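User: Here's a chain of 274 residues. Predict its fold as tokens.
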Amino acid sequence: MGRSIGVISIKGGVGKTSTVVNLGSTLSHKYGKEVLIVDANFTAPNLALHLGIVEPKVSLHDVLRGDADVTKAILKYEKGLYILPCSLLHKRVNPMRLKRVIDPLKKSFDFIIIDSSPNLNEEMLSTIISSDEIFVVTTPDYPTLSTTMRAVKLAKDKGTPINGLILNKVRNQKFELKLDDIEDATGVPVLAVVPDDVNVLEALSELTPTTLRHLSTDATVEFNKLGAALVNENYEDTRFKTKLSNLFGARSTKQDLNRAVFKDTRFSQTKFSQ
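Assistant: Prediction complete.
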């Protein structure tokens, strides 16, 4: 059985959808997993646009309304990576039916990654309820931190385990909130720190995940490391600058340590349950 992973934030513009696209791409392309990414932002969908799909003939809206079978709505992007899109021109649906659609698909996919609405409403709630685990995407500023704390509380209240935070659009400036401060405020570990990289926007303009377009950037490497943690594999950063840093005794980052703990905890529990 596959795992469903909800990616949430209660604020637009933090990079939630690009996170879904690039994490899904990493898991399928680099680690050979069968991955389905799902647009659960029913009122303002844009996940499909990231991959150049403007108006699918059959969408998740049709499935939720009972007008189509879910297999007709799933589109293949590349080997191992599929998308279940919403329609830009749509009728109202009941978001709480999402779980009924997602659960049977776990037999066909290793990972189902759900892109949530950025609003605190039934759409976000449906993602949380439909997910086995959650990632919360945030950025290192006070307004986003406050909404991240609310998102964490909502997921905890509903009993869905939170894997960790994905700290996105980081510029490494003094005015940004520090990783430790964000962890202290939310009570959740940061599992990935993705830089604010213009290559991500360039890849988006070409309707391609940056993990496929720019293979050696810091952003891609960070998604690769997060993907490795999810599949219990070790990722080796073979770039020259990393090897050079290691020669001078570079220490592991906090997110590296958090990922190691996450892997040990996650897969020891899986082994015990079997």
